[in-house]
Amino acid sequence: MSAPCMLGSDGSVDDYLDNLIRGDDLRERVALISGGGSGHEPSFAGYVGPGCLTAAVVGNLFASPPVDHILGAMRGVSTGASGILLLPMNYTGDRLNFGMALQKFKSLFPHIPAEMILVEDDCGTSEDRRGVAGTVLVHKIAGAMASLGKPLQEIVHFLSSKILPKLGSIGLSLSPLRLPGREEDSFNLHYGEMELGTGIHGEAGVKRLKLQSAKESTMLMFQKFIEF
């Protein structure tokens, strides 16, 4: 977590709670918090800065950060903020832990408006869509609105009605993923094959195909966007 600060991010690191919080004056503006498991760098700490996230919370490798760590980040940005918006990706652990942190925060600080939006842009699944690459765009759009002083409900409404319904991403893998310390791949993929719709944690995709050219593969992915 200290690396973003070393690279120039003006913020403070809480090594105990595994969070990074911006150090500039954010009074009367909406604070934005995102986070998730480690292993997706530069997400999430790398997006903390002006015009983007206010704070980031990270968990262990591919594991959601604990509720208390998320709550700690919310406390850390709450002083003077006009509201707080949580922007986790749609994974079970993140959905539960960020949701519980939000409930706890509202009970402790009922005078501070706080909301949560789940990013679920994965075109590779028809149900329980995961959050993937489009999350970065949500961070940036919300961050730009917050930096302009837009109120919490306006940001929430704009993202929910204009951005998220039209946001789509899809993965394409030429090889399986192997987690550090594991001896087996996350799924089997033979030479000359590719997997369409692979998840960012190495989840198997929705369709296995013979290896195709970059142009043909792009058209397959584009078709998923149209169907989305």
UniProtKB/TrEMBL annotation:
Keywords: Lyase, Transferase
SUPFAM superfamilies: DAK1/DegV-like
Record field: catalytic activity: dihydroxyacetone + ATP = dihydroxyacetone phosphate + ADP + H(+); D-glyceraldehyde + ATP = D-glyceraldehyde 3-phosphate + ADP + H(+)
One protein family per Pfam: Dak1
Top-level taxon: Eukaryota
Biological-process GO terms, alphabetical: glycerol catabolic process
Gene Ontology molecular functions: FAD-AMP lyase (cyclizing) activity; glycerone kinase activity; triokinase activity
Keyword Endoplasmic reticulum recorded: no
EC numbers: 2.7.1.28, 2.7.1.29, 4.6.1.15
Gene Ontology CC: cytosol
Protein name (Swiss-Prot/TrEMBL): DAK
